[in-house]
Design brief:
Layout (H helix, E strand, L loop, with lengths): L4 H4 L15 H7 L4 H18 L3 E7 L4 H14 L5 E3 L2 H12 L5 E2 L6 H6 L2 E4 L2 E4 H17 L3 E3 L1 H15 L6 H8 L3 E2 L7 H12 L4 E3 L1 H14 L2 E7 L2 H16 L7 E8 L13 H6 L3 E10 L2 H15 L15
Parallel strand pairs: 1-2, 1-9, 2-7, 6-8, 9-10, 10-11
Antiparallel strand pairs: 3-5, 4-5
Bound molecules: nicotinamide-adenine-dinucleotide.
The site of nicotinamide-adenine-dinucleotide has 23 residues, from α5, α12, β10 and α14.
Length: 338
């Protein structure tokens, strides 16, 4: 059956609001059960401990396609309620999905048995059961070029560039619902170690090809800045949603600090919500127990939860939001240290 583009891009993906439901009683019940319910309850308890620990800086790692799936507001609420001090993510989440929506575009409810050839003809991209208007994505690509064009030529960390993206939204789309904008307002740094592997990559290639004097993204500077945050923090806790590049980048700051001759303990707390397991020896499913052999994560307060994040992340965030320990935390405003 043939559809037209308007028919296919009709129903928006809506973002779940963790303030509207209280996951505490459910998670409390999970604690006395088994398997992943008990693991999730322990992860919730560890996040709560991080929030109560006055010495702990909390780093949120985001991989996969979380914003297109309806989890954007969860991230905004964590930033807004001072439950995150730094974010490490992918260009896909930060640019293609969050910044894209910040510009006023949406993700749409699609279906997995769609005719992908027809989608291609209509310039509709598919992420599993979600549709995106490729023409709107091109506007997003071009906006990243416009931002790059406006910057003084030179090498920037992705954090510095993403700060400019936040500023762009603040100046041009002030009412936008975007975690890039929220983090900009709250001075929470966002790092993307593989930044060009995203919509921004297209914009930056265009920018560099057109301009003799241009900007570039310096991923070593990212690593240096994130390591500075690690060194400045007495203790750290990592909250990982999915695995991928953000997971290792954060873990490696402990080793980087050591190589630079700085005092920095292993990450004291670590939780990960993931579908990957350890059998393939790959990073995404590697356990924190394994990471401790590399001197990266302490084994006392760690928990892996094996489940898909659209199910578990809202529960984790709703739990800590309703427990309310965030009310007693001071914002770290790490963007100010650079
Ligand atoms: N995700 C996209 O749609 C997309 C689109 C364009 C570019 N990219 C680029 O691809 C590169 C790799 O991205 P990545 O690191 O996110 O890789 P990825 O999407 O493969 O995710 C890494 C791992 O995280 C776990 N994971 C992902 N989603 C999950 C979920 N919903 N629940 C539980 N676990 C989950 C899985 O174990 C997965 O193997 C990045 O540079 C990114 O910018 C991604």
């Amino acid at each position: 059956m043939k559809y037209n583009k308007k028919d296919l891009l009709k129903r928006k993906v809506e973002h779940i609001d963790i303030k509207k439901f209280n996951a505490v009683p459910l998670i409390d019940s999970y604690e006395d059960m088994a398997f992943q319910s008990r693991n999730l309850a322990r992860a919730c308890d560890l996040y709560e401990r991080m929030l109560k620990d006055k010495d702990c800086s909390i780093i949120l790692c985001l991989a996969g396609s979380l914003v297109s799936a309806g989890l954007k507001k969860v991230i905004i609420d964590l930033i807004d309620h001072n439950m995150v001090d730094a974010i490490v993510s992918t260009g896909a989440i930060v640019v293609d999905q969050d910044f894209f929506e910040g510009l006023g575009f949406n993700h749409y409810r699609g279906f997995i048995d769609a005719d992908d050839n027809q989608l291609r003809d209509l310039m509709i991209d598919r992420i599993y059961d979600t549709f995106i208007d490729e023409e709107e994505l091109r506007i997003c690509d071009n906006t990243t070029k416009i931002i790059a064009d406006s910057m003084k030529p030179g090498a920037y960390s992705s954090r510095e560039y993403i700060y400019e993206m936040g500023k762009y939204l603040d100046e041009n789309k002030n009412n936008a619902e975007s975690f890039v904008l929220e983090a900009y307002k709250k001075e929470v740094p966002i790092f993307c170690p593989a930044f060009s592997d995203s919509s921004a990559g297209f914009g930056l290639v265009h920018h560099q090809t057109e301009k003799k004097e241009h900007i570039s993204i310096d991923s070593v500077k990212d690593f240096k800045e994130l390591t500075q945050i690690k060194v400045k923090s007495k203790e750290t806790g990592v909250v990982m949603i999915g695995g991928g590049v953000p997971k290792n980048f954060v873990q490696d700051t402990v080793v980087a600090a050591d190589i630079l001759g700085k005092e920095a303990p292993m990450h004291k707390y670590a939780i990960q919500l993931t579908v990957a397991d350890e059998r393939d020896g790959a990073l995404s499913g590697s356990t924190f127990k394994e990471a401790s052999s590399w001197g990266k994560v302490d084994q006392s307060f760690e928990q892996m939860v094996y489940s898909e994040a659209t199910l578990t992340f809202p529960l984790l965030a709703s739990y800590v939001y309703h427990k309310g320990s965030w009310k007693n935390r001071k914002p770290k405003k790490f963007n100010q240290i650079f």
